[in-house]
Specification:
single chain; about 325 residues; alpha/beta; FAD/NAD(P)-binding domain; 7-stranded mixed β-sheet; about 25% helix; about 25% strand; globular
Length: about 325
């Protein structure tokens, strides 16, 4: 027998959990479907990542996030959100991937996963953006030495590592690898370190570059990746650098194809912003809502936990008012 719900939430990250909390308050029969572990994106962050936000800005459900350090790290966040699940006992299916969402003629959504089939009156997509790396589209990018995700520095110790980008993930990786003994070179498309890099880290990387501990090529791009070297285009021409690993931390994007397949309209420009009502978070598909960073399309720096928690109550107030 097909299970039917008032609401299915696709994505078990902090914002998906926040939506479930509000659904419980409204006594809605809901289900969260998450393709990995609970708060899977945070689980896949670098081991020693520190949040830009303070602990209270990561709180959901009015449950305090106690943290001794000024800013929490990945481990504290995982512990916090596990405890959130223990407290609220969410109706959640983990390691189950949503493959298709279809709206039937009777205004009911049919949801097909890799394990089951469900029906729901309303859908929230809160899938974040960390699943699909933005590729460089250069020859050799498919090689095993090229990594689009970074976990920790140990395997790069005493190796020649090229880090692509100048955002938070790139800077953290460059500094950690250098401190573990790697020979680090950065390739940066613009002429400076990104202004959004964490304020307590930015001076560190700039000082390491200035003193020559970490080499950096500004206004430069990779043109080809080979077995033992990488070729880059610099303002002074092409340069070949000896290399063992490439950390292509060039950013990530939402699954825009999935949004389009379910009928959500995207803007025609390169930002690909989904169509939704900011007062209700309902998309152009009636009964289908967005929450969290996925609302920004390619503007993945616009929405994050602390400023998108409000999406949960906006959605639930609208659903229960209909």
């Amino acid at each position: 027998m097909t299970e039917q719900f008032d609401l299915i939430i696709v994505g078990g990250g902090p914002i998906g959990l926040a939506c479930a909390i509000e659904a419980q308050k409204k006594n809605l029969h809901y289900l969260i479907i998450e393709k990995g572990a609970i708060v899977n994106s945070i689980f896949n962050y670098p081991l020693y990542m520190t949040f830009f936000s303070t602990a209270e800005r990561l709180e959901i459900g009015n449950i305090p996030f106690n943290c001794l350090a000024p800013k929490p790290g990945r481990q504290e966040a995982l512990e916090y959100y596990r405890n959130i699940h223990r407290y609220f006992n969410f109706n959640i299916r983990l390691f189950e991937k949503v493959n298709e969402i279809k709206k039937t003629s009777d205004s009911v959504f049919e949801v097909t996963t890799d394990k089951k089939f469900y029906k729901a009156k309303n859908i929230i997509i809160a899938t974040g953006f960390y699943d699909i790396p933005i590729t460089m589209n250069v020859k050799g990018e498919e090689m095993p030495k090229v990594r689009h995700y970074y976990k920790e520095a140990h395997e790069y110790a005493f190796r020649k590592v090229l880090v692509v980008g100048a955002n938070n993930s790139s800077v953290d990786a460059a500094l950690e690898c250098w401190r573990k003994g790697a020979d680090v070179t950065m390739v940066i498309r613009k002429n400076e370190i990104n202004s959004r890099v964490k304020y307590w880290v930015k001076p560190d990387i700039e000082n390491r570059i200035e003193e020559g501990s970490i080499k950096a090529y500004f206004e430069s791009n990779i043109t080809e990746i080979r077995d033992t070297e990488v070729e880059i285009e610099t303002p002074d021409g092409k340069v070949a650098i000896e290399n063992d690993f490439v950390l292509a931390l060039t950013g990530y994007k939402p699954d825009l194809n999935f949004l389009e397949k379910v009928g959500i309209q995207l803007s025609d420009d390169e930002l690909k912003i989904p169509s939704y009502n900011p007062e209700t978070m309902e998309t152009n598909v009636k009964g289908l809502f967005l929450a969290g960073v996925v609302c920004g399309g390619m503007q993945t720096h616009k929405w994050f936990i602390e400023n998108s928690r409000i999406h949960a109550s906006l959605i639930m107030d609208y659903i229960t008012s209909k």
